[in-house]
Amino acid sequence: MDPETGERRDTDADAGSESAAAGAGATAAAPGPGGTVSDAELAAAKAEAAERLDDLRRLQAEYVNYRRRVDRDREANREAAKAEVLAELLGVLDDIGRAREHGDLTGAFRSVGEALESVTAKAGLVRFGEPGDAFDPMIHEALMHGYADDVEVPTCTQILQPGYRIGERVIRPARVAVAEPTEALPEPSADSSADSSAGDDSAENKDDQS
């Protein structure tokens, strides 16, 4: 009942109005779906995501470098093992070479020798050292030394024992005889000339006295 007019109120309409007002107030007070995010929080989230991405990229780069290092070490170990095995065969290859030079590489021995040379060549073994090569102390070992007029730089004139390498690795240097240009001969010093003259004079005096 309305206390002023004495009439009966419409309770359903009043309840609906009060419910609508309450709902509107609740909607205004509650945040949107998931709540609102401030600019500072958004910037912090972006910075954290960028940091995680940098960490992931760094880990990936470290893994790639690790794989490369492992592959390189594995290849180096494989080459070292191959070089060790082939080094044991150098004496046999030397015997084959000497037999060829003396004309003794014939028959079955020739077939076996050529087969061994072919196998070692396929394994990467390379023979080096020829007369006329410029002397290189990194790959040549000089066992004999002399002078010659027909060379302009220190030159290998004779290969006493061939050298072998695998790739850039020298298994055995070539043992050679080396000749330098004649111009490189040391000139006799003044002291040695004086000593020679004194010796000649002494010899002449002894002849006169006799």
From TrEMBL:
Compositional bias annotation for Basic and acidic residues: 1-12
Biased composition (Low complexity): 14-31, 189-200
Coiled-coil boundaries: 42-76
Localization: Cytoplasm
SUPFAM superfamilies associated with the record: Coiled-coil domain of nucleotide exchange factor GrpE (SSF58014), Head domain of nucleotide exchange factor GrpE (SSF51064)
An MF annotation (GO) of this entry: protein-folding chaperone binding
Annotated keywords: Chaperone, Coiled coil, Cytoplasm, Stress response
Ranges for region Disordered: 1-40, 178-210
GO cellular component assignments: cytoplasm
Gene Ontology biological-process entries: protein folding
Quaternary structure, from the entry: Homodimer.
Protein family: Belongs to the GrpE family.
Protein task: Participates actively in the response to hyperosmotic and heat shock by preventing the aggregation of stress-denatured proteins, in association with DnaK and GrpE. It is the nucleotide exchange factor for DnaK and may function as a thermosensor. Unfolded proteins bind initially to DnaJ; upon interaction with the DnaJ-bound protein, DnaK hydrolyzes its bound ATP, resulting in the formation of a stable complex. GrpE releases ADP from DnaK; ATP binding to DnaK triggers the release of the substrate protein, thus completing the reaction cycle.
Record's protein name: Protein GrpE
Organism: Jiangella ureilytica
Lineage: Bacteria, Bacillati, Actinomycetota, Actinomycetes, Jiangellales
Gene of this entry: grpE
